[in-house]
Amino acid sequence: MSDDKNEKKVHGIVAEYTSVDSLLVACRRIRDAGYTKTDAFTPFAVHGIDEALGIKPTFLPWIALGGGVAGLVTALLMQIWMNGINYPYIISGKPYISLPAFMPVAFELTILFASFGAFFGMWALNGLPRFSNPIFTDPRFDRATDDRFFLYIDAKDKSFDQAGAEKLLGETGTEYINTVVDDDSSTTVPKFLLTTLIAVIAISFIPALVVARMRVTTSSKPRFHIFPDMDFSPARDAQQTTSLFADSRAMRPDVPGTVARGEMEENLDFLTGIQMELLSSVDADRAERLVRTYAQEGEPSEKASDQGAEPAKSVMDTTPWLEQNPIKITEAFVQQGQLQFNIYCSTCHGMDGRGNGLVNNRAQQIMASSWIPPASMHQQSLYAEQYPDGKLFSTISNGIRKMPGYAGQIKTRDRWAIVAYVRALQQSQNASLDLVPENQRAEIKAEQARVEKKLAEQAEAERKKEAE
Amino acid sequence: MSLAIPNGLNNTVERPGERAPLVLGDTTYHDITEAVCQVAERPPGRAWMIGFLVAFALLNWLGICIAYLIYMGVGVWGNQAPVFWGWPIVNFVFWVGIGHAGTLISAILFLFRQEWRTSINRAAEAMTIFAVACAGTFPGIHVGRAWLAFWLAPYPSLNLWMWPQFRSPLLWDVFAVSTYGTVSLLFWYMGMVPDLATFRDRSKNKWRRMAYGLLALGWTGSSRHWMRYEKAYALLAAFAAPLVLSVHTIVSFDFAVSQVPGWHTTIFPPYFVAGAIFSGFAMVLTLMVPARSMLGLEKLITIRHLENMCKIILATGSIVGLAYGTEFFIAWYGQVPEEQFAFLNRALGPYWWAYLTMVSCNVLSPQLFWFKKCRTTPWIIVVICIFVNIGMWFERFVIVVTSLSRDYLPSAWSYFHPTWVDWSMLIGSFGLFFTLFLLFCKLMPVINMAETKSTLAKQLHMSHHE
């Protein structure tokens, strides 16, 4: 055994003691003998050993202080930046940078970072973790964590000489002295352990890689909904059916008697487009019915079938319609009508009112059999002389043929505005130059000439193109 | 009664001019090593096996309930307008409170040089960590969309383009509880390293040796290491002491910062901290009394240790009782009608039964600890401590539910009904706690051997000088 040892590098000498007191005596002996690279190994912290071995205090508290300060600064900067500068939260009119509210987190992070400083600083200063240590080669050293005390003199000490040190330790009441030599046991990690470790690390990257890949690529499929959150609401959409109501409509009509804000109009003529006083003398029943409908229930119950052109022509013809728009026509009012017409009417009737809206075009395209083409606004029968404003208003409100009533969607005033705009549209297609104020006639003529010229040029260009 | 220690195990008799021994019998350093290591080295006993199977089954049930909750949504709980903070938050506050005793024993009693803490601090710290794990579960799943709980963290989010709101006590809570969990874990682990080295050095089995060797980080017991280690330990204790006070203070801010009658009171921070220590000590005793006899540690965890903890329970229990009284006084003195109603409603309203349970368990039952017989008889201690645990759970229930169910808007008032998921999760959280604790008992050093040996060294040193 001793031959074997001589070939290995000697790291130091270790001696074993059985009590704290004998260890402390021995520590003082070797300290006084001038050894400085010494250490004692004990199963618990022995008080007084720092002095006995000459161990200097540690600067660990400064690391902890540094950690604490770093934590405080981090927390304050983080909160000021996040809540005061980058994304200012408005909370009860408090200042964005409200230090009192930032104190709890600042306190916690101070403690956290200081604790990290103390914990990791201690291990770093101790040079741990260190799994291969020559001292472990000593066969009795296992008891250093149980009930024995060991004293160690390092061979690197400048006054180290093996025989002298052994002699010195021999005088301190120890029964066991041994030299500490190189650890020649293998330090490599077992192969399968290494393989498993690498495999686990490699596999753990796969989900992250898949996610990263999916984030930068596009897909024609809808995205996954592992947790649908509130993306898919069980509530029905407007045009869907439901079994909850007898009429199967998911979209509920107004409750009878509902009056929208600002819609409380006493004037029945305004609401119906009919001269009510006249009507009561012509058709008292119908007038009464209308009064009840509008005044008490609020919802027009005169359905399209009730006054639709075909089935009740006579009623329509005998109704004393309002001849004039009850609202004063101004430019703003007509523009409002244009806006509403473009929103609600133009889809079928077309922007110009000729009945060539997108819905109509589509219906023609697919040759929908049940489609009734929307009327053109520019036919004579719809001009004011044959189709009074009140009747037009009533048609917008209550619908006709395939067209539903728009009373529910368009406010009363706006329906009158549409009437005004339709009149303007009709005028626009048939107006003679005489209707234009004299001082603007030249301007219009010039515009007309310019457009005609442009059209001619276009026609010429196309002709040439075809010829080529 | 003679002054000599009868039957060798009673160290509760005060002898003037002498410190009562904390390690009993003719114990040597090696005996301490043996006593603690045999717990982990023996094959598990029948009691441990049964306990573990039950706890593990409950833990699995908790897991199933959480999966069910995440799949179905929080509607499976009894949380319903106006009580949106039902049992999940009750359980959270309950478990965080339990944790506090561990830090108190390991940090504050360490700073006060209370050496009797040495043989109980390890298990108490472990209990802290497991209690914080139980506590952390509840807010995590209470956020509704549990898979987005990471939104609480201040990270630059590409989805939200915004940061957490640092003026919210709920966010303070995130920082407080996670800091507390982390520091407790560091403290616990650091304290265990020398003992893990003992385990390593005693291991015969190669794998066991390797596992404990890795955990022990190559600890040798070098005096130079011990010096820095002790410094770090003292520093961590000094940091953990204000930390433990801050954590339940911040938990109480969740309530106190709100405007709800019965919550909006300045007494909450100290009252919560006292309650936390109170419930934590009760839980330590509930665990320790059966454990010490099951694991054969009576010589290290002595009757004196139990008695000291009973005294702390008596003191904190009385503080809690005083706080209940003060709340009523302030409600009367403050002359805010809503506040007065809230407190009268707590005691006499529809939840009178919960209030009665709380007061009788928390205020009345610990008063039995005025009698030495009650402080030194293990089974009485356990019974009283279980009552205290029940009472402290009810305290949180009373605070959360009575205030919310009767807030400013009478048309919203209602009565809280827990569902089977609420029950399952409360019981399941005990499964999580006991699974971890039983594993700890079997795998880790349940008593701080190094510190107990140094206590013994001092004891030997003093007896030499007599």
TrEMBL record, chain A:
Pfam families: ActD, Cytochrome_CBB3. Residues 294-315 are annotated as: Disordered. InterPro entries: ActD, Cyt_c-like_dom, Cyt_c-like_dom_sf. Residues 332-426 form the Cytochrome c domain. PROSITE patterns: CYTC. The chain crosses the membrane at residues 59-81, 102-125, 192-212. SUPFAM superfamilies: Cytochrome c (SSF46626). It comes from the Bacteria. Keywords: Heme, Iron, Membrane, Metal-binding, Transmembrane, Transmembrane helix. This is Cytochrome c domain-containing protein.
Automatic annotation (TrEMBL), chain B:
The keyword Cytoplasm does not apply. It is found in: Cell membrane. The lineage of its organism: Bacteria, Pseudomonadati, Planctomycetota, Planctomycetia, Pirellulales. It comes from Novipirellula artificiosorum. Coiled coil: none annotated. Its main location: membrane. The keyword Membrane applies. This is Polysulfide reductase, NrfD. Belongs to the NrfD family. The chain crosses the membrane at residues 48-72, 92-112, 124-150, 170-190, 232-251, 271-291, 312-332, 352-371, 378-400, 420-441. It is a multi-pass membrane protein. Keywords: Cell membrane, Membrane, Transmembrane, Transmembrane helix.
